[in-house]
Amino acid sequence: MSRRCVLLAVLACGMAAWALSPAAASEDVWLVDGGLVVAMDEAGTIIPGGAVAVRGNRIEAVGPAADLARRFPGARCLDASGRIIMPGLINAHTHVPMTLFRGVADDLDLTGFLYGRIFPLEARFVDEEFVRWGTRLACLELLRGGVTTFVDMYYFEDAIAEEAARCGMRAVVGESLIDFPAPDNKTWADALAYMERFLVRWRGHPLITPAVAPHATYTVSADHLREAHALAAKHDVPMLMHLAEARYEVEFVREKHGKGPVEYVASLGILDDRVVAAHMIFPSPAEIALLAEHKVGVAHCPQSNMKGASGVAPVPALLAAGVAVGLGTDGAASNNDLSLWEEMDTAAKLHKVTSGDPKVLNARTALAMATRLGAKAVGLQNVIGSLEAGKRADLILVRTDGLHQIPHYDPYSLLVYSTKASDVDTVIIDGKVVMLAGRVLTVSEAAVRERVAAYQERIAASLEPRK
Amino acid sequence: MSRRCVLLAVLACGMAAWALSPAAASEDVWLVDGGLVVAMDEAGTIIPGGAVAVRGNRIEAVGPAADLARRFPGARCLDASGRIIMPGLINAHTHVPMTLFRGVADDLDLTGFLYGRIFPLEARFVDEEFVRWGTRLACLELLRGGVTTFVDMYYFEDAIAEEAARCGMRAVVGESLIDFPAPDNKTWADALAYMERFLVRWRGHPLITPAVAPHATYTVSADHLREAHALAAKHDVPMLMHLAEARYEVEFVREKHGKGPVEYVASLGILDDRVVAAHMIFPSPAEIALLAEHKVGVAHCPQSNMKGASGVAPVPALLAAGVAVGLGTDGAASNNDLSLWEEMDTAAKLHKVTSGDPKVLNARTALAMATRLGAKAVGLQNVIGSLEAGKRADLILVRTDGLHQIPHYDPYSLLVYSTKASDVDTVIIDGKVVMLAGRVLTVSEAAVRERVAAYQERIAASLEPRK
Predict the structure, then answer these.
(1) What's the whole-number mean pLDDT along residues A151-164?
(2) Are residues A293 and A420 in the same domain?
(3) Which residues of B touch A46 (CB under 8 A)?
């Protein structure tokens, strides 16, 4: 067909490549066409030989390729034949700079992990420069694996937001608040001042949603939790926190306040739909009802929770109660890669074996957790998470011809149980091509590799005396 | 260095490529050199800048590259710089032809899986031709992911052995015995006659170990189990079976024989070191002691057991008792790919979370299960499973520079928690290069793809009326 065109070679030239899209002018419609559309909308729309029309940073239409070709005659197009066209994946909980600590503290108990390794390493190495390079490495890995949005909690989130935006990634960036000196802000007053500036700076950005991120119930006082929530409400941004993530937390809160962690947060009057609660391993049935009632989003991190021997979140019960549950990888020091494909696969399998019911969480639900439900969990349900007209154009093309993928009989099974991060071919975020045929167009991979190698050498050297 | 040489381009020409090795004559020593050797021997030998010397189909020496270069002056070499040199992985339990049924029966209960899907599909599609093409596809996927040995239980194992050997793979091929008509043999007498011919035919083959594979305690009578074992003993081959794999099996055996499945098999006088027991989810403590006492090998299939909601095998207890536990993927209808990397990762994580102890199964042990312990579990401990002089030259080169792998601080963590099947670069089996830089040299991938597509179409068409 004459309207098929190879117009993207220019993207490889490297100069501001991410700003380019196949459209000639920014409001021209262009098509991603000829693939199997897996829309991940509520109806479960699947369109063989389908297409997505993109205008600016939004999805203009989704439908059969032939229909969209008639509707948008002469539109430029990106060929997706032999590929699945689906919404980009959402990593609902991570700590991106910690990629530089990948695998540095494995097979340890919590004390050995945190106090023996992570806290001393953070004290020694984490500064703004570290955060920038760790974020760049994470963005490369995330994009390579088809993640278009990540939700982060760490320090120097201003720098993380800058790097994510520069990489062309969508991100909810939560600056951490904690009741002891952090790598970026040494006092609560400093942290609040930083937070105000940070929330104002990123307001209305097309890719970045700033957020307030009080660390947890056992590291932030009741007054400070209320202050954090008031700030989130004032600026109308999400509030990210770890919640019901550890046995010692449940014991700590129960001893101090006589209730479970979710009940405790509710009693502070701050449990609402802006809260994104990471891990949520130990809610009681009453607390699950509270989460549903208050429309709290949950970020489930199955692999991290397994590796840390933390426990198994009651995901089938949360979903049955109507709680929006997304999927997160957690940081690479906890669970050593950032593949959402493995989290989907693991989530489905883990809940089957722990419930004894192989139907309890099927492939379609696992995929929804990484897309539509994940978007809802983090408050972006009107923006991303499915291929529907009016949403932002965050989509990925996935190869389906890997030796580990053929033959295939069902697209959800194929995507959840056989597909790997390395099968992602192309990534489009906010209407812009950010990765094409496996090559990221926004970050210098060579520069990142060079700096990562330098950090590896310094960090490894610091570990040796303790071995 | 002048002795470094690119001599393998000729392998790409395709004609009988697998028979070639970098050595000029079959008994010349050649080196795989310059990589990080992770030997997986008992001592845990690790050699940066290491090398493996290969003579014929055996490992001649393992050591620092400089030492081996002095010891074997003028030897040809395959550059492994930037890569890990390690023993090939052992898939201790699978059903290779079932790759053609990949994902055809997901998210179903056992009845829906077996009786609703798998048994009718097997009755309709499984013949010798099906088995050959399914095996070829599986061999491609296994090689791509660094598996050098697989242990199979299915039908038409003569054809599976032929295909594995043609692909240059090592395999323990167990012809199934079952008390109802099978796709290849309709009666017990036919099956025994087939088995005798099969065991004689493959005796002494450099790559193939034939085996007797009575299906399970609930599908093969006591007399037939004894006959199967007698045949295995007569020919001195392994006996593969599913054992303690399902709750209904435990209940069935307990009701019928008043004991657990392992105790029952022991009571038949056939529990010994030639038995490889797949799954082993439900042994009692007394049965674990029996397994250790009788030196039974176990094939643990964590992902398949999770996906089927079967249960969690007591692997830490089995290992503590001294039982050799290997890792298997099971067939691709149960657990939809054949990646041993994911089984290692999952095994470590699953046992941490179910025991509540993050130290209970570390990365080094998980890797041992896929190599040295797996070899021991299947009776090949003197042949494969580690890089040691005298063992067969089954080794793989693994890239370590993936964006999901950097930085790294420990080779075992890197291999188990970050590395994927797609990171395997080169595969050498029995001294021959079978995959080079990601390209398999023994099977026509194009021909396999064409036939897989045809099977997919026929099988998918047969499913539609039931949807």
Answers:
(1) 97
(2) no
(3) none
The CA dihedral of A341, A343, A344, A350, to the nearest 10 degrees, is 140
More confident residue, A185 or B140: B140
Mean pLDDT of A125-144: 98
- For residues A262 and B383, give the distance between their C-alpha atoms in angstroms, rounded to a whole number: 56
- Show which of residues 346-405 on chain A sit within 8 Å of chain B, judged by CB atoms: 346, 348-350, 352-353, 355-360, 362-363, 401, 403-405
pLDDT digits (tens, 9 = 90+) for A270-308: 999 999 999 999 999 999 999 999 999 999 999 999 999
**What is the pLDDT at residue B297?**
98
Q: How many domains does chain B have?
A: 2
Q: Is residue B46 part of a domain?
A: yes
pLDDT at position A10, please? Answer: 36
Q: The domain spanning residue B416 has which CATH number?
A: 2.30.40.10
A196 and A130 in a single domain? The answer is: yes
Residues on chain A touching B140 (C-beta within 8 angstroms): 403
Residue-wise pLDDT for B234-289, tens only, equals 999 999 999 999 999 999 999 999 999 999 999 999 999 999 999 999 999 999 99
**CB contact A455 to B (< 8 Å):** yes
User: In this structure, are residues B54 and B24 in contact, taking their beta carbons and an 8 Å threshold?
Assistant: no
Full domain range(s) for residue B151 = 89-377
Is residue B3 a part of any domain in this protein? no
Q: Which residue, B166, B275, B271, B162, is CA-closest to B211?
A: B275
Q: Is residue B188 predicted with pLDDT exceeding 80? A: yes
Whether B450 and chain A come into contact, CB under 8 Å, resolves to no
On whether residue A455 sits in a domain, the answer given is no
Suggest the residue from A353, A445, A466, A467 to mutate for an interface test with chain B (most B CBs closer than 10 A). A353
Q: Which residue has the tokens 């167990």?
A: B174
